[in-house]
Amino acid sequence: MANPKIIVVGGGLAGLSATIKIAEGGGNVDLFSVVPVKRSHSVCAQGGINAAKNLKGEGDTPWQHFDDTIYGGDFLANQPPVKAMCEAAPGIIDLLDRMGVPFNRTPEGLLDFRRFGGTLYHRTAFAGATTGQQLLYALDEQVRRYESEGRVSKFETWEFLSAVLDAQGGCRGICALDLRSMEVRTFPADAVIIATGGIGAIFGKSTNSVVCTGSAQSALYQQGAYYANGEFIQVHPTSIPGDDKLRLMSESARGEGGRVWVPKAAGDKREARSIPESERWYFLEEWYPKYGNLVPRDVATRAIHKVVYELGLGIDGQPMVYLDLTHIDRSTLDRKLEGILEIYEKFVGDDPRETPMKIFPGMHYTMGGLWVDFKQATSIPGVFACGECEYSYHGANRLGANSLVSCIYGGFVAGPQAVAYARNRTQSASANGAFDSERKRQQEINQRLMSSEGSENPFRIWRELGEIMTRDVTVIRYNGALAKTDGKIVELLERYQRINLSDKEMWANTSFVFTRQLYNMLQLARVITQGAALRNESRGAHYKPEFPERDDVNFLKTTKAYFAPDVDEPRFEFEPVDTSLIKPRPRKY
Amino acid sequence: MAQDGKVVIIKIRRQAAPKSQPYWEEFSLPWKPGMNVISAMMDIAANPVTRDGNASRPITYDSNCLEEVCGSCAMRINGRARMACSALIDKLEQPITLEPLSKFPVIRDLAVDRSVLFENLKRVKAWVPVDGTYDLGSGPRQTPRQQEEAYPLSRCISCCCCMEVCPQFNEKTNFVGAATIAQVRLFNTHPTGAALKEDRLHALMGDGGIQECGYAQNCVEICPKEIPLTNAISEVSGQVMKQAIKDIFTR
Questions:
Q1: Which DSSP state fits A309?
Q2: Does residue A397 contact residue A232 with C-beta atoms inside 8 Å?
Q3: What confidence score (pLDDT) does residue A431 get?
Q4: Cα dihedral sign, A205-A210-A216-A222
Q5: Is A236 left (phi over 0), alpha (psi -120 to 50) or beta?
Q6: How far apart are CA A573 and CA B169, in angstroms?
């Protein structure tokens, strides 16, 4: 097959990276996205992208980047792909630079680098504080170029519903829903790449975008794909609580010198700036003198939780602490952090150059995702995955500024691997009828929903899901609460059967689409919750006070969930972790 | 969580499909601290009942990041084109009116089709023509000043507010609008991007080209990202003029 047709689902950094590689390698791409790709969630990434370019005379190396990433992830990641990613990172930065990303510069005209959490090196390249936006645009522009050459066809405002599987379980294409006409259609392909990002919506409010529901991953899991390490959820230490979402306040604020503190006296009512230095407690700097405010996210998040909930020292008794930039001069802040300061200003109304910001931890990222091998292949033949929707690069905790590099690197592997798979594939199994029957199965689901005459509002079910997942399956986990949460999700799934759609129009019906996603969110929520219940240890972002230590004997293992259709719930297996390059050692910052 | 019985009154111009008649619906929502237009519409979705107590349907609108960086949720709020996510309820006069952008085809309710901008970006080749994605070493050196010039232009979120408020952006002129011209400026400034400078300038000549700009300056005033759009238009106008003169002598 000279010019294989590859379907890429998702148009964020990972999907666009894969698309570019496929087009460059002679393949044709059908690119599916629920939003115009330029509006994908990657735009939200703020602080930067890691690569050991060693332009600051610190002796940084890809190996050091690799070691920081493995150690930061508490040794749960398989090591060979992480090493390969860290080695590729400097070349990726160069490529982005050539594509025109307006990275900040040193006076000599070289790329500037800042510090980020979990490392002692200046390793993070950045474009102001909107690095994700700038990277996404650069890749979007290259894809537009291929689109105008006819190598890429975009299917924007189409939602992935399922894979089309042949009699032997191999993937022959996808089934998707046109979000305007509500038409269900199947699309054949020689291979499929899933790059559908995060799952924040399962937690109700998160730093994620509205489209980050995890629906596609969950659909594939229900079709037989393994889902790995689902219990590892990153709660970002510094977000801005909001009525509609939690807005991220980038780690770069601390990378540029931001300090986290609370008043020493509980319930201190004074305005932040009038509290003298001696009456402030810089608890991260005191507890972690080496890394200070730049400890990894899981560590900072637990520290803030402790200060607020155990020590009762939240600002004015509220679950909030200060993130203070006011000691840094205005021009530096504007040059390096303007994008995020503007977000705070617009959404909170205070100027963070003048007033310390009030922040609190918020659900941010899933380390877990679709299980893939070292070639980004999922357990369904012909389906590949890259970006946040797969599990392989971040172990038990992701370091800041590693997500962008893992998205692009993952896409750069998945694209050529999908092409190679397509070229080597032998057409043995028949796909006869597979397309028709999958389309019918999806249309039946739609009809059932549309004709459901119950009394349950999907948005209310979703709010209940988000509340309990945030309360019991984020920062601190107890087995009792996890069991109750799983029971609650089962109850929500039952109520889902009695859903009532107030909108039954077959045109641009967003609540119908959301209701379909909600079902997949509920199924995936059980994977996360039960995975957390099974892992009786504390590792990275997964923390159980009942089992406060890391337990390598029993749990230096990848959690692999698979769906058991007969009982309609997950089953679990554990797989050893490849630690062939760096011997696990205790993680102490 | 209604506090002191305070309510928010929102009037929404709705439309079931591209060719349907628009109509107005009014909602009364319990006030909450920190509400914005998006969270108000989320509340409507959770309880879709009009102010008069009639059963209604959730509002169709585009949204994604809710941090004013994806560009999805542009609409007219109290008559002004802006992003719904950053429109804080407490700062808006009530009743709050929500209408779709008027210069783009309505899909449903507040969702409109803005694909014209992405087509325009194709037309002006808004990209840097790299040789390939293989390792070719670092990019061209650029001074911090060059970066500081490029970066603001590169923050355009494709919301299309500048086109909405432009008196020249209409079917009569076919004007491309400020956003596209600013991208031409961005890519013409880049050391490698400049390789396609002539193609871009030619794309801005003729039907709907840069000469249609009437310098109303509405674009720069409305841009949520404060992009120096009028500077970009003047600069690119100059480039187009020079190119036109050059064309006379070289063709």
A1: I
A2: yes
A3: 82
A4: positive
A5: beta
A6: 59
Give percent of chain A above pLDDT 70: 99
Percent over 90 (pLDDT), chain A: 95
pLDDT at B2 exceeding the cut of 60: no
Strand partners, B202: none
Pairwise CA distance, residues A299 & A118, whole Å? 10
Which DSSP helix (H) or strand (E) runs through A517? Answer: helix A510-534
Catalogue the E-assigned strands of B15-152: 23-30, 74-77, 80-83, 96-99, 106-108, 111-112
Task: Measure in Å the smallest separation between the Cα of A234 and chain B Cα atoms.
Answer: 18
**Backbone dihedral angles phi then psi of residue B108, each to the nearest 5 degrees:** -160, 140
- Sheet with A369-370, edge to edge strand ranges: A369-370, A227-228, A557-564, A569-576
Query: Look-up: residue for tokens 């909450």?
Result: B32
Distance CA A329, CA A350 (A): 17
* Chosen from B86, B151, B159 to mutate, greatest number of chain A CBs within 10 A: B151
Closest CA relative to residue A457, chosen from A511, A526, A513 = A511
CA A378 – CA A386 distance, rounded (Å)? 10
**E-assigned strand segments in A241-276:** 247-248, 259-263
Give the pLDDT confidence score for residue A429 in this predicted structure: 67
Which residues fall within 8 angstroms of residue B79, CB to CB, at 6 or more apart? B97, B99
What is the spatial distance between Cα A87 and Cα A477, in angstroms, rounded to a whole number?
35
Query: Residues 178..207 of A with a Cβ closer than 8 Å to B: which?
Result: 180
Distance of CA B237 to the CA centre of its chain: 21
User: Which string of DSSP letters, residue by residue, matches A334-379?
Assistant: HHHHHHHHHHHHHHH-S-TTTSPEEEEEEEEEES-EE---TTSB-S
ipTM, two decimals: 0.97
Quick check: A210 contacting B, CB < 8 Å? Answer: yes
Q: Return the half-sphere exposure (C-beta side, CA atoms, 13 A cut-off) of residue A141.
A: 27
* Chain A residue with the nearest C-alpha to that of B59: A510
Phi, psi of A254 (to 5 degrees): -80, -30
* Residues in chain B closer than 8 A to A97 (CB atoms): 138-139
pLDDT tens-digit map of A153-184? 999 999 999 999 999 999 999 999 999 999 99
**What is the rounded CA–CA span in Å between residue B242 and residue B246?**
6
At B3, give phi and psi (nearest 5°).
Answer: -110, 125
* Residue type at B174 in one-letter notation: N
Distance to chain B for A587, nearest Cα, Å: 34
pLDDT band at A1 (very low <50, low <70, confident <90, very high): low
Q: How many angstroms separate the most distant Cα atoms in chain A?
A: 75
From chain A, the residues in CB contact with B140 under 8 A are 98
Q: How many CA atoms lie within 13 A of B59 on its CB side?
A: 32
Look up A297 and say whether it is catalytic.
yes
Question: A74-96: per-residue pLDDT in tens?
Answer: 999 999 999 999 999 999 999 99
In 3D space, the residue among B181, B135, B149, B238 whose CA is nearest the CA of residue A98 turns out to be B135
CA distance, residue B126 to nearest chain A CA (Å): 7
List, for residues B188-199, the tens digit of each pLDDT value.
999 999 999 999
State the virtual CA torsion across A202, A204, A206, A208 in degrees, nearest 10.
60
The rounded distance, in Å, linking the Cα atoms of B177 and B196 is 20
> What are the φ/ψ torsions at residue B149 (nearest 5 degrees)?
-80, -40
Instruction: Kindly list the strands in the beta sheet with A184-188, ordered across the sheet, starting from the edge strand earlier in the chain.
Output: A158-165, A171-178, A184-188
Nearest to A147 by CA among B216, B121, B141: B121
Residue A19 Cα distances to A15, A28, A154, A185, A509, angstroms: 6, 9, 11, 22, 29
